[in-house]
Fold this sequence. Notes:
Shape: elongated
Number of strands: 9
Strand order of the largest sheet: 4-5-3-6
Amino acid sequence: MKASAFYRVIASSLIAGEPTVDLANERLTRTLGRHWRWVRPLAERYVKTFSGHTRPHRREVCEFLRKDQHFQEARAKYRKEIRIEHWLTESELMQPAPAAADWNLPRIESVGALAQWLALDVTDLLWLADLKGLASKLNRPLLQHYHYRILPKASGRLRLIEIPKPRLKDVQRQILFHILNKVPPHPAAHGFVKGRAIQTFVAPHVGRHVVLRMDLQDFFATFPAARIAAFFRTAGYPEPVADLLGGLCTTTAPRSLWAKSASDYGFEHVYQARDTYSRPHLPQGAPTSPALANACAYRMDCRLAGLARSAGAEYTRYADDLAFSGHEFFAKRVDRFSIHVAAILLEEGFSVNHRKTRIMRQGVRQHLAGIVANERMNVARTDFDRLKATLTNCLRHGPGTQNRQVHPEFRSHLAGRVAFFESINPARGQRLRSIFEQIQWR
């Protein structure tokens, strides 16, 4: 047997069971057909290396075996005698990391069990997960699992909205409801979290001497498929199951998508977007992406929250918007503090959109996510006046004259904006509501 195949078999035997010395020793003995004196010490070194962490990837265990000096010496000494006697075919067991032990997730320990849990055939499961990215290599939209929409940003960069088709969306919703919703988010995360909203994101920063706002660049696309699969392994799922769950929740945008866009949006921005989205990533538009982004950003939130506490500041995050605030002690150190934040974000794999970084002291309008936070939460005066003028013109001249952006549900659009103003400033919101209720809708 070739060395690479031998390593893979030994690695599979070690990963399959719980990371205990006795079980690892038993499985290796069964695989090799006899009890070698060097097997138990190898099991002890394996457990010491990987116990208490995320279930290792098989290639990580193979690398461990290649670097293990005692294992290499035993293999060289008994090369003609060591052979694989039994192939262990039973499914790997759930092995949640210590932090995930209380999440109470559904037990799925094989590819067949995952297909059954999702009410799919195994072939359909493999097609939807598309681990080899075949759909992105074909210029055939009917065979792709997503609808795509390119949106230009104010900076000139491009954002790609990737909306899963109905069958994949149903699968993702099941993963969201039965797995991801059981994963507790960090207390600082307020975006896409039940019971939290923009108001809870802004509230800790009201009335502070200084507010620091920072923005992450290409937030969802920053999370690669390998990171998502690693999260599912942290949750305890065996490697084949974790890889498929990761494949169902990530995608690769077809490069052909950008062929006709260069002349419309500029070659530089198109090439930049193509490079960003042509690697497996979290799609902005999938129901699972916000929860997965929050889960995978947990360590970043822990580090930033700790850094904020050391500087006497508060920290909250709403998706890709980061907010820090404090009083005199923090105000004197905010410039240097922002550099430390950027360094942590870089170490965690994120990029800061420095053009959107703002240090807002009490003498200027301190605004976060469209809400003013100087003395109390409020809406910007210009936003209030603009919406009031729109509602007034709808009342005087008819709603059709004001729907300049051709919203398909213009009434619902305005009702939503009025409700948002009411939730921030009830007094101002009621004034807008009284005008809205007088409009004659046809």
